Amino acid sequence: MKKIVFVFLFCFIVLSVYSKQYEYALKFNNKIKKIIWDITERQDDFLLYNRGEDIRQTIKSKKNIGTISWLIENRIRQSFIKADRRTELNKSVVKITGNIDGNRIEKSFELGDVPWIQCIEFEMKDFILSDKNEMKFWMIRQYDAEPVLMKIEKKEVQEKLFLKKKIQVIYAEVKEDNILSDFSILKYWFKKENGLCIAFHGSDGTKEQNKVMIKLIRE
Predict the structure, then answer these.
(1) Beta bridge partners of 216
(2) What sign for the dihedral angle of Cα 81, 211, 173, 175?
(3) Within a domain: 13
(4) How many structural domains does the chain have?
(5) CA distance 110 to 90
(6) Looking at the domain assignment, is residue 34 inside a domain?
(7) Which of 7, 15, 45, 134 could form a disulfide with 62 if both were Cys (CB 3.0 to 4.6 A apart)?
(8) Model pTM?
(9) Residues ≥6 apart with Cβ < 8 Å to 213
(10) Alpha carbon of 76 to those of 54, 79, 82, 104: distances in Å?
(11) For residue range 1-15, what is the model confidence (pLDDT) as tens digits?
(12) Is residue 72, in this structure, part of any structural domain at all?
């Protein structure tokens, strides 16, 4: 009987955890870098781990809620940011700590009714597959750890060549939700069938706002 119970529990654990790896190519100044995302999905949340040459990120996200925690480390700048979502006095807040260029940071902000989405590429799946056309969300800037209110808007369905096959994609634009938003538009292309991000054109999240192009090359 113990053996049967053990086998059942083992099978349940295996079926409840799903891991997958995605490889993207980042193009900047005619140079190409590879970015690898490891995703571990569980019953009601998932973990994202990003391994780049300069930057590493770990994100925990809860389905239908958004980002729960975020850790980013920049080995060149010797900087890091750590942010965690928590409940204080019946309010959802995000606590941010870290060290940027030798300066210690410690701040917090209240989410209100707006979700925190730190990784648009993988945390927008529910929105992309929904009937909604736009959504507001919070995102923390990488270079100064400042929370910024953003807006994503679906623009149109397009046909795009992806891994030598023509597929339907949803083209969406992301920008800050303020009067200066049109000066910095981020462009995303998601698979219509499953909401997976296959391409991105925009800034790299640094203070210099370098223009980059990212595309999925292996899934």
Answers:
(1) 24
(2) positive
(3) no
(4) 1
(5) 11
(6) yes
(7) 45
(8) 0.86
(9) 26, 27, 28, 199, 200, 201
(10) 6, 8, 17, 17
(11) 444 444 444 443 444
(12) yes
- Please, what is the average pLDDT of the chain? 87
DSSP strand pairing (134-140 vs 147-162): antiparallel
Amino acid sitting at position 36: I
Q: How many residues does the chain have?
A: 219
In a domain, 41, yes or no: yes
Domain span including residue 62: 19-218
In sequence order, the β-bridge partners of residue 162 are 165
**Worst-scoring range by mean pLDDT, 42-46, 151-155, 205-209?**
205-209
Give a three-class secondary structure readout of the chain. Answer: CHHHHHHHHHHHHHHHCEEEEEEEEEEECCEEEEEEEEEEECCCEEEEEEECCCEEEEEEEECCCEEEEEEEEECCCCEEEEEEEEEECCEEEEEEEEEECCEEEEEEEECCCCCECCCHHHHCHHHHCCCCCEEEEEEECCCCCCEEEEEEEEEEEEEEEECCEEEEEEEEEEEECCCCHHHCCEEEEEECCCCCEEEEEEECCCCCCCEEEEEEEEC
Question: Is 159's pLDDT higher than 60?
Answer: yes
pLDDT of 183: 59
34: tokens are 């590879």
Could you report the per-residue pLDDT of 169-194, keeping only the tens digit for each? 999 999 999 876 555 789 999 999 99
